[in-house]
Write a structure and sequence with these properties.
It is built from 17 helices and no strands. By secondary structure, the chain is mainly alpha-helical. The protein has one domain: MFS general substrate transporter like domains (Growth Hormone, Chain: A, Up-down Bundle). Helix 7 packs antiparallel against helix 12, helix 10 runs parallel beside helix 16 and helix 12 runs parallel beside helix 15. The longest helix is centred in the N-terminal third of the chain and has 34 residues. It is globular and about 50 Å long.
């Protein structure tokens, strides 16, 4: 009896495992240019700031296309939509590997960005819906864990492959791994009817919620702050912190591991103490960014700071995604598509700001600029947002 029960229980988790694996691949593809920025700029004979536009344009395409694409496909059965999305992702990454120059690489990344726009609009709501009964929060945490593992394994491994075999081979590996995920999803993912269809006429009503607007605004500010720095963390670690190539890889890996620690802290403490948790997440991001340049005086201090920074950023992402899902039970996919768009607008603005700092001043200043932006987010969160969310100290 127990063996039969265990088989049934494991079978119930398979769709979520497949979705988590897919989230890992999507997030790896999104962040991989960060780990290979120097090599891409060298081969394509562009500056690092110019190569950084791959991150900026990618993010802005996601920001612009998330809502329009979700409005277009919101009535589609979710299994079919998921498989179509992964197919576009595979083809686009293949073109990234074959791109003869910077312009074609940019076009291929735009294709990846369009698939990203849909996937991250449906991934979190789907995780909650397909999780075994009573395990919806675990489902959401698994998706976030998949993105953290992308930083732990995907980014460092992709960087190693790129350094040894060339950055194009990294994109080949992403496409092949995505095809494996596609086959897994075909085998285990159930049909999930859409229940988030919404017309453009109904969207203003969704956006009348002041708590939702507050989450969107704070997310934009904090993500802009984070990516002002994180988009250029690889050259910063090499040029300013003077880390060896291996140390850079290990530091990026530690940043990813910190995401799992942030997920554990969220599951243990958020529901019990939401106000202190949000204070730690937003305040921590600001403090750790401001201290980045000082921490670069030692290999170990910059490594430790990246770990705490990663914990704070993961805590922030989880806390506000959970709140968003709670606020929009009948229109989660659309609300999440807007969230994804705003999140990626922040990524694009951050990457652009970081590139401007690198080009016009010095890469050593990116932590100060990102930290200053984060302080603005902290002030807004403490003064306004916690009241809107009816969270009391």
């Amino acid at each position: 009896m127990s063996k039969s029960y265990n088989k049934v229980a494991f079978k119930e988790w398979l769709p979520l495992i497949g979705l988590t694996f897919t989230a890992f691949i999507f997030n790896t593809s999104e962040i991989i240019p960060i780990g290979l920025l120097t090599d891409i700029s060298t081969e394509l004979k562009v500056t690092e700031a110019h190569a950084g536009l791959l991150i900026t344009v990618y993010a802005w395409v996601v920001a612009l296309m998330s809502l329009p694409l979700m409005l277009l496909v919101s009535k589609m059965e979710n299994r079919k939509l998921l498989l179509y999305t992964v197919s576009v992702f595979i083809v686009s990454n293949t073109f990234s590997a074959l791109s003869p120059g910077y312009a074609t690489l940019m076009l291929s990344r735009i294709g990846v960005a369009c698939s990203h726009a849909i996937f991250w609009s449906i991934a979190s709501p789907l995780a909650v819906r397909i999780a075994p009964e009573g395990k919806s929060s675990t489902g959401l945490s698994m998706i976030v864990t998949g993105t953290s593992i992308a930083m732990i394994v995907g980014l460092p491994l992709g960087r190693i492959i790129g350094l040894q075999l060339g950055w194009r081979i990294t994109f080949v590996c992403i496409a092949v791994t995505a095809f494996i995920a596609f086959l897994i999803l075909i085998a285990v993912f159930p049909k999930v009817p859409s229940r988030n269809a919404i017309s453009l006429r109904k969207l203003p009503a969704l956006l009348e919620n002041p708590a939702l607007i507050g989450i969107y605004l704070l997310t934009f500010i904090m993500v802009t702050a984070h990516y002002t720095v994180y988009s250029y963390i690889e050259p910063f670690l090499g040029q300013v912190a003077d880390l060896s190539s291996n140390w850079v890889t290990w530091t990026l890996t530690a940043f990813g591991i910190s995401g799992i620690l942030g997920s554990v802290l969220f599951s243990r403490y958020y529901e019990k103490s939401p106000y202190p948790f949000i204070c730690f997440a937003t305040g921590g991001i600001a403090v750790f960014l401001l201290l980045l340049r000082v921490s670069a005086l030692s290999d170990y201090t910059v490594l430790a700071l990246c770990v705490f920074w990663g914990i704070a950023m993961t805590a922030f992402n989880l806390a506000f995604q959970a709140k968003l899902i709670q606020l929009t039970p009948q229109a989660t996919a659309i609300a999440m598509s807007v969230y994804s768009g705003i999140y990626n607008l922040g990524i694009g603005c951050g990457a652009l700001a970081g590139g401007a700092v690198c080009a016009d001043f010095s890469i050593s200043y990116i932590g100060y600029i990102g930290g200053a932006i984060a302080v603005i987010g902290c002030v807004y969160c403490m003064k306004r947002l916690v009241k809107v969310l009816t969270i009391r100290p």
